[in-house]
Structures are given as structure tokens and as C-alpha cells.
Amino acid sequence: MLFQFFIPSRPSVRAYEMVVDWTQTIAIFTLLVGITGMLKYNLEKVSRKKSGYGYNIVTIAGVLAMALTGLIWGRSEGTPFVWIFDHVQSPMQATVFSLLSFFVASSAYRGFKARNTEATLLLVAALLVMIGRVPIGDFISSYFPKIANWILDVPSMTARRGIFIGIALGTIATSLRVILGVERTYLGRS
Amino acid sequence: MDVGTWIAALLTLAIYSFLYKDNPFYKFAEHLLVGVSVGFLIVIAYMDTVVPKIIDPLFVRHDWLIIIPIVLGFLMFFRFSSKFSWVSRPALALLIGFGAGVAIPSIMQSYILSQMRATISPFTNINSLGTTINAVLIFVGLICTLMYFYFSKKHEGTVGVAAKIGIYFLMIYFGATFGFTVMARISLLIGRVGFLLSDWLGLLKIS
Amino acid sequence: MNFWQRASSIDRRIIFILLFIAVVIPLIFNFKLPNRVTKEVQAVYDYIESLPPGSVILMSFDHDTATLPEMTPMARALLRHIFTKGEKVIGTAFLAEGAAIGNKAFKFVSDEFGLKEGEDYVFLGYRPEISSAILGMGENIARVYPKDYRGVPLADIPLMQQVKNYRDIGLIISVSDNDSPNAWINLANARYHKPVAPAVTAVMATTYYPFLQEKQIIGMVPGLKAAAEYEQLINKPGTATVGMAAQSIAHLLIVLLVIVGNIGYFMLKRRNA
């Protein structure tokens, strides 16, 4: 993949397309391995009647209901699969994440204290962005959105760029180690 | 108002009951969510990946070369055996090697070369005191942020000062990110409350 | 316990109730606040406006149902704009839930315009391994997606006769709640020089400003407020616009709580010193 980027000849493009295809196919099995692992865990808990196994029965029932309705009746609009997706899966998933808003508010109130310079900078930046990037900030004063936009365009962007470059150097170093065989922890050996 | 809306609303309230304390309704809803999510994944994985990438190539188009990645993929299941997990290594190696090979030129291009150019380019566009200050801040800020992540030298003296300035820039970034995180979570809350008030209770009309 | 001690130790359940009220009241009374359009959202709008009619845009639904309240308004606003301009859309998904979400979004908006699947838009569905899929589509979309979401072979779809790979695509929009836009930028933009516009949840917004400055992305639609701005630009207010007053009041509440908490902290610190 690395050499093909720099040598786009016909044989290298063919090899590139083949590797891309094969990677897609193998990746399907990583999905299947994950699904199998999850089912194995829940079935083991039920078969051994471990504490709270009733909830694992609910999980398995959910898997069966969704999988069977989808595989038997398909996934077009109006099918039981889509009905369960719309009225069970989507609402619950969205609600779980919306719970975080309450905890974010509570933890901001409790934890956001201007104890030192760094904490004060973090606090002030957060407050200015929270006010500047909603309509009420502009309503209170037109300076709020201007300051918030400046924070995002200059200091915040600069720090994020530094993080990107750090990530990039680390990724390239790790990738080279993998290619050269120095890094083998992904194979399960120490 | 239909049965589906009632089911969605009751499950929503079951999840929200966690705000008071952990309870059987929440646990039931949570486990049901995990179950239907995996069931959903099974259907999508089968229809969008197994059929077009395995069944069709093998049994419809008779593309026999596809047997190689299929065999490699099956070997992944040996991950479940502690004695034979080594059999899954070729497949893993192909995936990881692919990722590593793709990462190097693309990340070099997007994360390093382009970003370095973007740090210098504001200096070519200076037309006021504001743009000058911004250009200097971006350049100095980037150097200082990178100095903070440079751990091969102790953070003292000039390096220490630069690292300290880098931390200040990072704190502003984390603060801005937190502000946006609050925005995102509140948006999700607005969506769910909107559903409860409009679709379930009919107290308001949201298009 | 004096006032400041009480002010800096409010029970969290009271905070939960206050936040709930801060969201409910503006929704019920439907307050409206003016919403200034930011430059990154304007840039996406202007770019789509500049595309010639009949251009093909690739929209990737790389998010799950957890962020539906935030992402659905922006996806619908973008699709409405694209279809109003007479442009075509090809949809993909690199998260499994994105497949169902994308299909619903297309059906919902295309019904408003009376559009036909296969001619005006195509939804290709889900693929795992985003990197290999993005790279594969750069050479030949049909290799990555032999069939669309309905199971129709691409060779039988009229729209796909004019779209073979990225050369035939005018813009890539990644509607995402994770780092999928990074893959589009690193691969589709860096290697194939395709313009990319992330439409992301607000959490991801700060990640993409470096790319915005370097023009590796043509603009960005971050969060519910940006979705409201886009609805304003296309003159079709929807759920995002309705939510802006609630968003504003909730933010104001949290800011006030933080300020009160800090004043309490300093007053107690001074008292104990």
C-alpha cells in the first residue's frame, strides 16, 4: 500500500485493488467475531444461571427478535425490522446519550473551578464558547460570537494542530514498526 | 398516537429513571438496547457485506479468488481458542499491514505537510494588526504545543517556558471542546424532550 | 451553612430538574431568537450553490442513532438544499446503523420532492473498513458496492451509469459523530483531491478547524446550531430552529451555575484562609 502510493503503475494498481477487496472481505469476519463473542458471553451467563441472568435473556431475546424479523421480512420501510429500529433501538440509544447532558451540567458546576491559571483558561474558554456559539450570546452582545469564533480559529485550532502533528508522528512511527516487524503486539505475543 | 410511540416513550422514561438511581427498569431497557443493536448489526452485516462480498462472488459470479480472503477471515474465529489463537494471525497481519501502509502517505500529507503549510501561510496574508497577531499566535502556539509533547528533554529553562505556553493553548482547546460537548449533549436532550412533548404528549407541534 | 456554602453544594438532582425546566419552557412557549450564520456553514452552502445542476454529491451517513436528534436536522437540510438545486446524491454508510438512518433520510426528503430512487439518488448501504472502502471507491465504486441497499445491481441503476469513481463526484459530505471525516480527508481529499465537507456533531467541531484553515475541507456544519443556520439559509425552518431557544437557555443556566459555583469556591477559600 505504501509503495503503490508512489508507484501507480498498472500492476501496482491491480495489486492495490485486490488488497482493498480482500481487506473488505476479511473485515466482515471481524464483525462476525464480535457478534459471536457477545452472544457467547450472554449464553454462558444464562446457561450457568449467573446473578442477573434474567437481563441476559432479555438481551438474547432482543437479538433474536431483531435478527429474525430482518432476515425473514427484510428491511424496507414498513417492515417489523424497521419498526423495532424506529420505536425501540433509536429512541433508547438517543436517550442514553442525552443522559450525559445532565451529568455534564452537574460535573461542570462541581468540577469547573478556577484553581490555577490553566483551569481558569479552560473555564473561560468553555464559558465563552458556550455563550458565543448559541443565538442568545449574539442577542446579549455581538462581541460574544466574535470572541468565540476567534478562540476557535486561533488558539484552539493551533493546539489541535499540535495534537494532530503529534498523532501523525506517532502513527507513522508505529506503522513503520509494524511494517518492519518490530511491533508485534497486535498478534497477541508480548 | 400509536403503540410504537408509547413503547418509545416508556423506554425513554425507563432510561431517564437512571437519573434518580439504578433500577430494574433501566437495566431492562439497557439490556434490550444491547440485544436489538446486535440483532440489527447481524441483519445489516448479512445483507450489506456477507451477501455482496462472499455469497454473490462465490456462488453467482464464480470468482474463486475470493476464497483466499474468506479462508483468512474464517481463521479469525480461532481467536476464541487460547490454544489455536495463533491461526488468526495471518488475517490480522493483513488488516494491520494494510492500515499501516495506507496510513503513512495519507497522514504525512494531511496531518503534517498540509498543517505545516497552513501554519506558515497566514504570514503571506498579513494586511492588518489583527492578522499579524493571529499569524504570530498560530506559529508560536504550534511550536509551544509541540514542545509540550517533546518528552526527550526536561521541561526547564526555555523549553519549560515554551511547554508552559503550550499547555495554555491546550487548555483553551480543551475548554472550547468542552463548550461544544455541552452543546452536543444538550442538543440530544432537546431532541428527546421534544419527542416526549410533541409525539407522545401532543403538547407541542415540531415539524 | 451560609449562602455561599449552599450555593456551591446544590444537590445534583436539583440541577437535573433545573436543566429539564430550562429545556421544556422554551420548547413549550416556542421563543425565537435570531441566529447569525457562521462562515463555515455559509461556505458549505455557497459551495453547493456553485455546483452546476446535475452534479453528483456523495453523502456518507457515518453516525449512529445516539446522535440522531443532532444529525437528522442537518442531514435533511443538506439533502433539501441539494435536491432543490437539482443535484444528485449517492449515499453510503460506514457504521451499520448509518445504513438504516441514511435510507430513512433519503426516503423522507425525496418524498417531499417526488424524486425517484435510482435516477435522482442512490443509497448504497453499509460497508465495514472505511479506509479500504474509501480507497476502493476512488478507483471503482461498483467494486466496493456491486449492489445498492435494495439489492439492485449497480449496472441496472441509471444514476450509476454516469458515476464510476470520484472523478464523477463533485463533493463529499460526511455526516458523522466520530472521526470518519478524518478518513475522508486523509484518503479522498489527500489522494484523490476531492472536496470534503464534514457535517458533524458539536463534540467533533474543534477537531476540524485546522483542516478548515488549510482548506482541506470546504466548510463544516457542526452541531444543532449549524443545522439551524442551514435551515435558515435554505429558508425551511425545522427541528433545529425550534431547538435553538432551548439550547440557549440551557447554556445560560450552565454558565450561571459554573459562575455561582466559582464565586462560592472563592468566598469559602477566602473565609478559610
Question: Could you explain the architecture of this structure?
Answer:
The complex is a heterotrimer of chains A (190), B (207) and C (273). The radius of gyration of chain A is 25 Å and the shape is extended. Helix content of chain A is 81%, strand content 0%. With 207 residues, chain B is mostly helical. The relative contact order of chain B is 0.06. The mean pLDDT of chain B is 89. Chain C has 273 residues and is an alpha/beta fold. Chain C folds into two domains: 55 residues; 199 residues, Rossmann fold (3-Layer(aba) Sandwich). The model of chain C has no long low-confidence stretch (mean pLDDT 93). Chain C has a six-stranded parallel sheet with strand order 3-2-1-4-5-6, sandwiched between helices. At the A-B interface, helix 1, helix 2, helix 3, helix 4 and helix 5 of A face helix 1, helix 2, helix 3, helix 4 and helix 5 of B.
Can you give keywords for this protein?
heterotrimer; A: 190 residues; mainly alpha; 8 helices; extended; C: 273 residues; alpha/beta; Rossmann fold; 2 domains; 6-stranded parallel beta sheet
What is the gist of this entry?
The complex is a heterotrimer of chains A (190), B (207) and C (273). Chain A has a domain at 1-73. Chain A contains 8 helices and no strands.
